Structure formats: structure tokens, C-alpha cells
């Protein structure tokens, strides 16, 4: 691994932000010099301690418009809450309902399902053919979400419906004049997702959206970084692989910005916060993704890497699943030492990522 190779990996990865959200990326980069900075009614939060403070020490309005909770609640209207928008007992009950499937034993069960899919998915590399890692990630994510929710939905149809539901919801919340038909588009996409799942409550749809969109964004970006930076040696090493996976999830920060709203007063990174203030919590900067390259031999440490999964009572319940899945993807690919072929950014996706990213075995 050389710094030139890491620079090449970083350059390619930046394209997913620059092609999909150039203004936001520019604003965040320009303001990251301070732990937290107020611009009008918005507080931008960049550093690790301030990010943790915001997620654990400030009362948050979980249902406010423009927050993850508010958007999910509006898009997936139906019976029950969607975790992101909940507090207290209802929230704890929702988390408990997921704990079994996403705990160590649950993930081992899901692993038995995805390993054969993965081996079949990478097999064309052995014949000198290309593999599209985005298509592979969609199949894995759709299969995992269907199994987790106990649904018979086809993996690719479910992945497509979950991506479309998230993309429609994001389009409906873009800054600027209201877009005609945006609300109807969001409702149609959510209805289709529910249809694919065969009914169920809003939480099921939310879990499918959260699992599919993050996996489809994170896995191809991590694989591209690993290939471009020449990290397949670490990926092949069973001792280093878990730390490498954690590092790749840290630098790709699949959910790079968490939009939240303060419900009461407090202080974040020395910046006073009032009730009603908008908080843009930059997970990507909190985890040091912009300044420290990924290295399984010299990792940033779990405490920092974990920040890409949030913090506090709403911390991502799918973190173990996402990490183990990426470890298995890296292991399945490592023997081929793949290089990246074609890639195209997905400009419509809810999270920055690739629409196509092919790899082939190094000759
Ligand atoms: C690279 C992969 C992933 C990343 C980066 C990620 C990131 C996040 C983040 C930042 C949050 C918000 C945490 C907070 O507010 O403190 C979250 C919440 C959540 N994630 Fe993930 N996630 C990933 C994968 C998954 C997967 C595979 C699932 C599968 C079930 C999942 C399910 C959820 C759910 C249900 C919540 C809401 C939790 C709550 O509000 O209590 N995530 N995730």
C-alpha cells in the first residue's frame, strides 16, 4: 500500500459526493475547521466529541420535518413507529424486536444464507469475467432484508423497491421550491415497498430501507477503495480483515450526514444550541474519513470507527451485520486481487454511492 494508491482510492471515492451532492460537500468541507459552527438556524457539527455530545446530550425532536425520523415517518406512514422517530418505551420495544435477528446468533444465521450467494456472485472472476459489485450488493442486501423480516420477497425486487422508497423521500426533502408531485411520488414508492413485502407495519419497511440503502452504498465503495489502495493483502489475512472492514466502513461513512433538530437548549462543541435549531451532524468528519486513510495495521480504533453508525440510544442496530457482511465480501474477493473496471455514480440514490462498479481479477 502506497500513499499514491491511497490517494487514487480517495479520488475515486470523492466522485460519489461530487456527482450527487456537490454543494453540500463543498459547504461541509469549507466549514470543518471548527468542531461546531452556526450558520443562521443551523449548527454544523464536525468533530468526534461534539458529534457524540449532539447525539447523547441534546434533546432531539425526532419527528421534525427534514430529520431522518421526520422523513421516514412521513414516507412510511402506517401502523406503528419507525424507530428513528421514536423515544422511550415504544422505541425500546422496537429495538427489542430487532435484537434477536441482528445480534451475534442472528447474524450467524444470516451469514449461512449470504455465503453461498457471495461465492456464486464472485465466481465469474475465476473465468476472467467482470462482476458488478453494485448488483451483487443489491442481491445480498435484498436477501438479508427479506430473511430478517421473514418475507418471501425476491431479493432484487425488494432491493429495488427499498432504494426507490428512500430516493423518493430524499427528493421530496431537497432544498428549494416544492416539487410538484414529490409527495405523491414518495407515497407511491412506499406503497410499492409495502406491496413487495406483502404488508406489515411501518417498522418492517423502515428496516428494509435502512438495510438495503446502506449496504448498497457501502459495499461497492469499500471494495473500490480496497482495490485502488492495494489492500487485498490485508483482506486476505484473517487476523487483519475485521479491522480492515471497520476501517473501510469508517472512510466511506455510508450515511455521511445525520440531519437532526434540537428539542431543547444545550451546547455542542462549545457552540450554544437552542430548541428548534437544525443540526447537521457530519459522521464522515467525526470519524476522520476525510483525513486518515484506512489501514487494518494501524486502525483509527473502534471508538472512532463506530461513529459512522451514530451514538447513544439510536445507534445503528445493524452495525454488526454490516461489518460481518463486508468482511465476508472482502474475503470472497481477496483471492482474485480484483481491480476496478467501469464505474458510474448513482445520482438518484438516497446515499452517495455507485450505480455500477465492475471489478475483474488482476491479470
Ligand atoms: C454501512 C452500513 C450502515 C451504516 C453506516 C448505518 C448507519 C446508521 C446511522 C448513522 C444510524 C443513526 C444512528 C443515530 O441516530 O445515532 C442508523 C440507524 C439505524 N440503522 Fe443503520 N447503518 C448501516 C447498516 C444498517 C443495516 C444493515 C441495518 C439492518 C437492519 C440497519 C438498520 C438501522 C435501523 C433500524 C436504524 C434506526 C435505529 C434507531 O433509531 O433506534 N442499518 N444506521
From TrEMBL:
Residue spans crossing the bilayer: none
InterPro entries: Cyt_P450_B (IPR002397), Cyt_P450_CS (IPR017972), Cyt_P450_sf (IPR036396)
Span of the signal peptide: none
Family recorded in the similarity comment: Belongs to the cytochrome P450 family.
The protein, known as: Cytochrome P450
